[in-house]
Design brief:
The complex is a heterotrimer. By secondary structure, chain A is mainly alpha-helical. Chain A folds into 3 domains: 183 residues, no CATH class; 413 residues, no CATH class; 64 residues. Chain A contains 30 helices and 2 strands. A two-stranded antiparallel ribbon of chain A has the order 1-2. In chain A, strand 1 and strand 2 form a beta hairpin. By secondary structure, chain B is mainly alpha-helical. Chain B has 3 helices and no strands. The longest helix of chain B is centred in the C-terminal third of the chain and has 31 residues. Chain B is elongated. In chain C, 72% of the residues lie in helices and 0% in strands. In chain C, helix 2 packs antiparallel against helix 3. The radius of gyration of chain C is 21 Å and the shape is globular. Classes of the chains: A mainly alpha, B mainly alpha, C mainly alpha. Chains in contact: A-B, A-C, B-C. At the A-B interface, helix 30 of A face helix 1 of B.
Chain lengths: 719, 102, 169
């Protein structure tokens, strides 16, 4: 096995090992734990970038990706094979995923207040007030497991191994979102971390069941789950496309595609299964960064990018497959839907959460309209600037918490209305956050977000998907608007609370990752500039990204022509949104106590937006409560207590009655006759005793009488 | 000629009389007398069979002689026992010698 | 008609009558005397059966020893014999029935069987033959010796039993 393939095998291993090492051995020593975790993810990063480097240097890499597999499950003549592969798509993922994970784990060192003494009032299970996190090592163990699972998923060469990584990440999301399991709030409407973890796990689990059905269906039809074997085999693809599935009118390929897409709807928080993601903000911020930028939601999009040949099977130049239509619809709808909610949120992390949902909608819609390259590109750039934004928000929250510790005010450190004026106090955080925010808004030319978002819009425009185009454009406008709103409320103007005034910049372990990510947020976009873009297209190598990544597909994907119209429209939308936001929040920054001006403008609509369209309440009423009722009444009372216990009690009762009957029978049917028999024998013995007179003559008489009787019988009767 | 059956009948009658004495007499010595009569009847039987069977084969008489010896020994021992009992219990009534019971 | 049957019948009748008296009289001394008479009758039967030696032994042994012994025993246990009530115990009737049934059963069997006739010819010197057979190692020396031993045992045993023993009389 050559070095590249060996390294590809080894990439997921260090973080998984570090999880076990930390849990089993090093959990008492904080420094050792985070060193193990950092070292492990650092090793993975080294291996990944080595593989990336070597792949980029290999000519015709697309035809000969690094791949290796072992026969894992013998099934008759053949075997189900498990293995790793590094094809162009994987290489792209391996570029940014380990980097983001590494930076997040480094960030966690500072975030968990390493170096500060342990506060005695801190209880393990609750968020630390100002001392070091009590469950320090556990955090790094879980983060390592998360990173390891993501890497497993990334290098997997078949759908089953991908699913393993997928599920382990689901578990980690539960563990990490509910990390501060002992934390409770006074307000009963506010969700606790424990409940948020359960919500995330159950929602994604529901989606995963559908995905698993899809996987099984695919295996039954294709006989294999290896990506390359399925997608590059004309025979299998034809069979899948032309076999009608169990649902009439739908080909097997499309039904499988829909089922598998259902997994992404859950994992990447698309409507209607998006409800878990905002509440996942209850977890520590590095977790939010990990889940919502680097790892989990990216995994959802990565999977449908990977499965694109199947999802788009049968799609001609004119129209898409039914699966793609569904994806485009859900993606575009989600993008706009989430953006409208984000406008009315006051929690700094929740704005980013809805922003993530919205951006994921972009990627899903991009795939829905067939923009494979654009979707992968946006995935990569989004990972950088979203991780940056989340970690920046964590830095902001830490700063405000420091202020709260100082002033002992009773404030929510995450509420933007309590912030303000942090630009002067936290400069590094401010500038990096600004860069990230601009990238998110698609600030023209210098941010990576612009290039990737523009490509999606251009593709929609070029192929004539008008509705998608308009919706995504509107969402872009709103994205820029709420981003500016967030920046202005947080950093500009004067502090609206004493705590904000007393905040200070975070430690280097937190700010260094921000700087690194800001660099990538600015410059990572240049690899994907359209090849016909004036000046820059030629300068930057005619879209090397596109050339590289289309190799992962079996069929050549035609590129789009360059057109100025979508570019200009997206610039207008982006700058327009930023401008509106500045007008409302930046020109005259909000003073303390002043209400959000948007409330006045939108009126009752604002309440609906702030309430997230009351979707959680609807789900609770329509799904959660009935489920709880079924669990409590049907499953517990009727079936478990009534049917099962009832059956048991009936059987036991019957057994007891039979036993009582047996006892009665024993006492009267067996004991009594035997006792009476014994008594009878004794009584007859007593009555026979009189024969024993002790006199020999009497004995003789009896003997002789008996002899006479017997001989008489013999001689007279039995002749 | 005297048929053999006459001798045998005679012996049977003698035996029956002895049997009656054993079963129905009170005094132990009387019982013993009955036993002697029974033994005598047996010897008569033996000799009769010898005479009417094969007189040349002296085994019949030899048998009878042995029976005699046995009868004598038995009478001696029995009487000794009676005397001993008489000494212990001052009675020879068979009814009153009744220890072999419950 | 020869004399043997008549003699037999007479002697048998007398013997049976004597035996009957033995088993019925109240006075034991009388019973002993009648026993002697019965035994004497049996001796005559032996003579009729050409077993002269047996007749002699009967007289000498049975009458001379055993009957005398019985008389001695009667006398030694005489004190209690003062009451001369009926000498029949409570179940005498059952004993009679048993004896009678026994006799009837056996004699009916006897009368059914075809017995051989009396062998002709002289019997010969039975005494000599008997004496020889009792000491002949191929014949009956062993029963003879065993009988001797048995007699010794009976002798010693009866002395031991009848000794006054621990208690004083």
């Amino acid at each position: 096995m050559d070095l590249s393939t060996l390294l590809t095998w080894l990439i997921p291993l260090p973080p998984l090992l570090s999880f076990f090492l930390i849990i089993l051995f090093t959990h008492r020593d904080k420094r050792l734990s985070h060193s193990v975790a950092l070292g492990a993810i650092g090793l993975s990063l080294l291996f990944s970038w080595t593989v990336v480097f070597r792949a980029l240097r290999t000519a015709h890499f697309a035809e000969h990706p690094f791949a290796a597999s072992v026969a894992w499950l013998p099934t008759g003549d053949s075997a189900l094979r498990m293995g790793v592969t590094a094809d162009p798509l994987t290489v792209v993922m391996l570029f940014f995923v380990p980097l983001a994970c590494f930076l997040i784990i480094l960030y966690s060192v500072g975030y968990s207040n390493y170096g500060k003494p342990r506060d005695d009032r801190d209880v393990p299970g609750s968020a630390p007030r100002h001392g070091v996190e009590p469950m320090y090592s556990r955090f790094f163990a879980f983060l390592s497991l998360f990173a390891g699972a993501m890497l497993v998923l990334t290098v997997a060469d078949n759908l089953l191994l991908l699913f393993f990584g997928w599920e382990i990440m689901g578990l980690c999301s539960y563990l990490l979102i509910g990390f501060w399991h002992g934390r409770n709030y006074d307000n009963p409407a506010q969700i606790t971390p424990r409940a948020a973890g359960v919500k995330a796990f159950i929602t994604t689990r529901f989606a995963d069941v559908l995905m698993l059905i899809g996987i099984v269906y695919l295996y039954s039809q294709a006989g294999t789950l290896n990506f390359r074997e399925i997608f590059f085999s004309e025979e299998i693809m034809n069979h899948l496309l032309h076999t009608p599935s169990v649902i009439g009118g739908l080909a097997t390929a499309h039904l499988i595609g829909l089922l598998i897409f259902a997994g992404t709807v859950g994992k990447s928080a698309q409507f209607p299964l998006h409800v878990w993601l905002p509440d996942a903000m209850e977890g520590p911020t590095p977790v939010s960064a990990m889940i919502h930028a680097a790892a989990m939601v990216s995994a959802g999009v990565y999977m449908i990018v990977r499965m694109f040949p199947l999802l788009s099977a049968g799609a001609g130049a004119d129209g898409g497959s039914p699966t793609m239509t569904v994806m485009a619809f859900i993606g575009a709808f989600t993008a706009l839907f989430a953006a409208t909610i984000a406008v009315a949120q006051n929690d700094v992390k929740r704005v980013l959460a809805y922003s993530t949902i919205s951006q994921l909608g972009y990627m899903v819609a991009a795939l829905g309209i067939g923009a494979y390259v654009a979707a992968a590109f946006h995935l990569m750039t989004h990972a950088f600037f979203k991780a940056l934004l989340f970690m920046g928000s964590g830095s902001i929250i830490h700063g405000v918490e420091h202020g709260i510790h100082h002033t002992q005010e009773k404030l929510d450190p995450q509420d933007m209305l309590n912030m303000g004026g942090l630009a002067k106090r936290m400069p590094v955080t401010y500038w990096t956050f600004l860069i990230g925010g601009f990238a998110l808004s698609g600030f023209p030319f210098i941010t990576s977000g612009f290039w990737s978002k523009d490509e999606i819009l251009a593709d929609a425009f070029a192929h004539g998907h008008w509705w998608v185009f308009v919706v995504l454009l509107l969402a872009a406008f709103l994205t820029a608007f709420y981003t500016m709103r967030q920046i202005a409320l947080t950093f500009l103007g004067e502090p609206r609370s004493e705590s904000a005034a007393h905040s200070h910049e975070s430690t280097w372990t937190m700010t260094f990752p921000l700087v690194v990510l800001a660099f990538f947020a600015l410059f990572a976009g240049f690899v994907g500039v359209h090849s016909d873009f004036p000046v820059l297209g030629e300068l930057l190598g005619h879209n090397p990204f596109e050339h590289f990544i289309v190799g992962a597909l079996p069929h050549h994907l035609a590129g789009i022509e360059f057109n100025w119209t979508p570019v200009l429209l997206s610039v207008v939308a982006g700058l327009g949104g930023l401008g509106c936001g500045w007008l409302l929040y930046g020109r005259r920054p909000l003073a303390a106590g002043q209400p959000d001006p948007l409330v006045a403008y939108l009126g009752p609509v604002h309440e609906m937006l702030a309430g997230k369209y009351f979707l959680d309440e609807l789900y609770d009423f329509a799904l959660v409560r009935p489920a709880k009722w079924v669990a409590e009444v049907v499953a517990f009372r009727w079936i478990d207590r009534g049917l099962i216990d009832g059956t048991l009690h009936t059987i036991a009762g019957a057994a007891m009655r039979i036993a009582a009957g047996a006892r009665w029978f024993d006492k009267w049917g067996i004991n009594y006759p035997s006792d009476k028999l014994g008594d009878g024998v004794r009584a007859s013995g007593y009555s026979f005793r009189v024969i024993q007179t002790g006199r020999v003559q009497d004995y003789l008489l009896i003997t002789l009488s008996a002899v006479i009787a017997v001989s008489g019988v013999f001689f007279l009767v039995l002749r | 000629m005297v048929p053999l059956s006459w001798y045998l009948t005679f012996a049977a009658a003698l035996f029956a009389l002895g049997l009656y004495a054993v079963l129905a007499r009170k005094n132990a010595v009387a019982i013993l007398m009955g036993v002697e009569i029974m033994l005598n009847a047996v010897i008569v039987n033996l000799v009769a069979f010898w005479r009417y069977g094969n007189p040349a084969d002296i085994a019949g008489q030899a048998f009878a002689v042995i029976v005699f010896a046995v009868a004598a020994a038995e009478a001696a021992v029995g009487l000794a026992l009676i005397i001993s009992i008489y000494r212990q219990r001052a009675t020879v009534m068979a009814e009153q010698i009744d220890l072999m019971k419950w | 008609m020869s004399a043997t049957p008549i003699i037999f019948l007479v002697v048998a009748a007398l013997t049976l009558a004597a035996a009957f008296l033995v088993v019925t009289v109240r006075n034991l001394i009388h019973a002993a005397v009648w026993l002697v008479a019965a035994l004497f009758g049996v001796a005559v039967i032996f003579v009729l059966l050409d077993a002269g030696f047996m007749a002699t032994v009967q007289v000498v042994l049975y009458i001379g020893a055993i009957a005398i012994l019985i008389v001695f025993a009667v006398m030694l246990t005489r004190r209690v014999m003062q009451d001369v009530g009926p000498q029949r115990n409570a179940n005498w009737w059952l004993g009679a029935i048993v004896a009678i049934v026994f006799f009837v059963a056996i004699s009916s069997l006897l009368w059914r069987t075809a017995w051989p006739a009396l062998p002709g010819g002289d019997v010969g010197d039975t005494v000599l033959a008997l004496g020889r057979s009792l000491v002949d190692p191929n014949k009956y020396v062993i029963p003879f010796e065993v009988a001797s031993v048995m007699l010794i045992i009976a002798l010693i045993g009866s002395i031991a039993v009848a000794l006054p023993g621990k208690q004083s009389e």
